[in-house]
Amino acid sequence: MIDVLLADDDPRVCRYLDEMLSTDTLLRVLAHAHDGPTAVRRTADLRPDVVLLDLRMPGGDGLDAIAPITRYGSRVVVLTAYDTDRDVELAIRRGATGYVLKSTDHQGLLAVVRTAAAGHLVLSGPAARRVPGLAADSRDLADMIRHALTDRERAAVRRLAMGMSNQQIADELAISVPTVKGHVSSLVRKLGCDNRLQAGLLARDAGLDRD
Fewest CB atoms within 10 A around its CB: which of 128, 151, 158, 170? Predict the structure, then answer.
């Protein structure tokens, strides 16, 4: 079970996120917070695995809450409508594991929470391009993935990063769907992910969708 704390100044947003995350039986929302200081206090009390944190909150900025929250061992995923250079860079430098936009779709957000809980960096495409030094980190991650997988698994994970279905991957590689499923199961296990969505996000963070 992955325990989650939701921090957003709008109670309606927290309720919406709560309902969304509740569709995944492996995720459990422990509480809501509506400003940064409250998010820190509730993290100290509840020790969630992941904190979904807004940045713009009256009564306590989310950026100031990131470092204190991470000291309790929780992963912080910034979930915001903004992706300015300053916000993205500061969030990552203060210890955020992820930075994604509120426009992220339902399945994408579930995968983000799971991926962050596993300790992997998760950034939206626009955010990734704004972080100085991330390109080098992405190359390291890409090298790790390439060395861990077989040629066929690398071909499959690259297409997962591009959002392809098993059928589309099979058509591209001229192999059967059961064979694709076998490659995907193997690469998910080797990369320490829970599912194909996590593996695809990890590969996308590594820039494999642009290879």
Answer: 151
